[in-house]
Design goal:
Elements: H1 3-9, H2 23-34, E1 45-50, H3 53-59, H4 68-71, E2 74-81, H5 86-100, H6 105-117, H7 123-147, E3 151-152, H8 160-166, E4 174-183, H9 202-205
Antiparallel strand pairs: 1-2, 2-4, 3-4
Helix pairs in contact: 2-7, 5-6
The chain binds flavin mononucleotide.
Amino acid sequence: MELLDKLNWRYAAKAMNGKKVPEDKIARILEAARLAPTSSGLQPFEIIVIKNQSIKEKIKPVAWNQSVITDCSHLLVFAAWDTYTVERINYMFDLTNEIRGFKNEGWENYRQMLLNAYPQKDAEVNFNHAAKQAYIAFSQAIIAAAFEGLDATPIEGFDPTAVDEILNLREKGLRSAVLLPIGYRQEDKDWLVNLVKVRKPMEDLVTVIE
Ligand SMILES: Cc1cc2nc3c(=O)[nH]c(=O)nc-3n(C[C@H](O)[C@H](O)[C@H](O)COP(=O)(O)O)c2cc1C
């Protein structure tokens, strides 16, 4: 199947059947998320993978009682940094130097520029910027899930404060941004499965400037 066939096949499943997804498939989805591009390469988020059924049961009521939260195999929580700190910025720049095996003046100047700009900003502004980066990885995970023939339902319908509490995210300097239950669609219980995909026409989406 071509990528576009897989993207047409995928949809935001409303019912899943509880079947477990093999770990190698989940690992490839997480790797796709890890490979996502992010602003300045900071990757300002973490992904919590919930396999534990009782934790899923705790999250369901604070996620509009959506059944996919408990009927999925793995529940991914994309949690963004609550702010940018000197330590967090330095960590990624140091990691880059370590992995590439050299220091570069331009890169070090860029580090200083970020250090002089980001940590001073309002934490809410920084969290929102970090959450946007998390969404890029989230999107890559959705595509990767479709590639694996798995269903993945993007979920913004939840109370982030409640999820942060359940997972103790604030203590780790994280805030939940978006959820992604991964599993297998349950066709006989899903009103959406046979409905035609609706997208606005290309001409309403794209403007080409020659
Ligand atoms: C960021 C985001 C949040 C969403 N939140 C929910 C949600 O909480 N519950 C749900 O059933 N669908 C949710 N959706 C699914 C969208 O409604 C769905 O992707 C859209 O209608 C397009 O349909 P399709 O994905 O089935 O092709 C969300 C989608 C995105 C991208």
